């Protein structure tokens, strides 16, 4: 059998994550392997967090992120919390610095088990989201779903947390909207040249909002950390909330703080489920004996 790599099936508030240990290896997790793992009910996931040896001095690891469709992602908040929990359990360290495509991320596991990730600074300029055409005010862009005279969703805020997000604001229950139908249409809308993560958000107070997400390259998920960050900063910059909020995603609450230095700090849990070994090229896998229920 090929030279197998260790993995841990984990989740961040129900966002299904595979943490792949690629340290000491020269290969990468292939898109085909991602699609094969996702096709198996036991290992289906939203993102793979591939931990590689560091590429930059001062970082613990380089992290590569794949969505369940095999596409690459620049950021994954829930997945980063799972990586922190796994490495903290292995090494006893509590503070980590990772390099990702989106930049350098600092993260810390607290004594209560919750994990904070510095998701970096949000980007709001149209060509940093990116959008296909210039919008001077990205707090509200011209995009809608439904009849022209009575749109179901309209005027979203857009932001990048290293990955593109559109947040549609609603007055009613976020579960009253057919995100499974609207999500794929909006994810691949021409206004988003790199596609986008599509969220519906309802502001409950100056300190709390509900949020559901159709994830780029993964579909409906129970949690999207970077969307929670994008929703929080968009709520603040449109005057709907303060800069410290609880974001209720379907899997549970996340705390988001948009610091005065412009960094966005996300805090939440992570959970280990089982471990195994897999072929990073084919996705063929086997469960570790001690993980057999
Ligand atoms: N679930 C992740 C987001 C993963 C990437 C996203 N699907 C994308 O392609 O941008 C999170 O918790 O941030």
From TrEMBL:
Protein name (database record): Diaminopimelate epimerase
UniProtKB keywords: Amino-acid biosynthesis, Cytoplasm, Isomerase, Lysine biosynthesis
Complex formation: Homodimer.
Principal location: cytoplasm
Organism: Nitratireductor basaltis
Presence of keyword Isomerase: yes
Annotated EC: 5.1.1.7
UniProt subcellular location: Cytoplasm
Binding site for substrate: 15, 47, 67, 77-78, 163, 197, 215-216, 225-226
Signal sequence region: none
Protein task: Catalyzes the stereoinversion of LL-2,6-diaminopimelate (L,L-DAP) to meso-diaminopimelate (meso-DAP), a precursor of L-lysine and an essential component of the bacterial peptidoglycan.
InterPro entries: DAP_epimerase_AS (IPR018510), DAP_epimerase_DapF (IPR001653)
An example Gene Ontology molecular-function term: diaminopimelate epimerase activity
Family that this chain belongs to: Belongs to the diaminopimelate epimerase family.
């Amino acid at each position: 059998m090929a030279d197998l790599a260790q993995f841990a099936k984990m989740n961040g508030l129900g966002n299904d994550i595979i943490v792949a240990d690629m340290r000491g290896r020269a290969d990468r997790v292939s898109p085909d392997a991602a699609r094969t793992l996702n096709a198996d009910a036991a290992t289906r996931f939203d993102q793979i967090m591939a931990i590689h040896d560091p590429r930059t001095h001062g970082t613990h690891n380089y992290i590569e992120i794949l969505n369940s469709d095999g596409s690459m992602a620049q950021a994954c908040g829930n997945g980063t919390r799972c990586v922190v929990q796994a490495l903290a359990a292995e090494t006893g360290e509590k503070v980590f610095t990772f390099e990702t495509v989106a930049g350098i991320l600092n993260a810390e596991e607290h004594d209560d088990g919750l994990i904070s990730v510095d998701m970096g600074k949000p980007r709001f300029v149209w060509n940093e989201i990116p959008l296909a055409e210039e919008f001077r005010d990205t707090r509200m862009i011209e995009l809608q779903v439904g009849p022209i005279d009575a749109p179901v969703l309209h005027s979203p805020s857009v932001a990048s947390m290293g990955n593109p997000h559109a947040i549609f604001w609603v007055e009613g229950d976020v579960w009253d909207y057919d995100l499974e139908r609207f999500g794929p249409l909006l994810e691949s809308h021409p206004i988003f040249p790199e596609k986008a993560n599509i969220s519906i958000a309802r502001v409950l107070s100056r300190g709390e909002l509900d949020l559901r997400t159709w994830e780029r390259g993964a579909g409906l998920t129970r949690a999207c950390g970077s969307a929670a960050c994008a929703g929080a900063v968009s709520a603040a910059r449109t005057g709907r909330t303060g800069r410290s909020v609880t974001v209720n995603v379907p899997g549970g609450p996340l705390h988001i703080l948009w610091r005065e230095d412009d960094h966005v700090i996300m805090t939440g849990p992570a959970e280990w489920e089982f471990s195994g070994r897999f072929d990073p090229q084919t996705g063929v896998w086997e469960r570790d004996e001690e993980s057999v229920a």
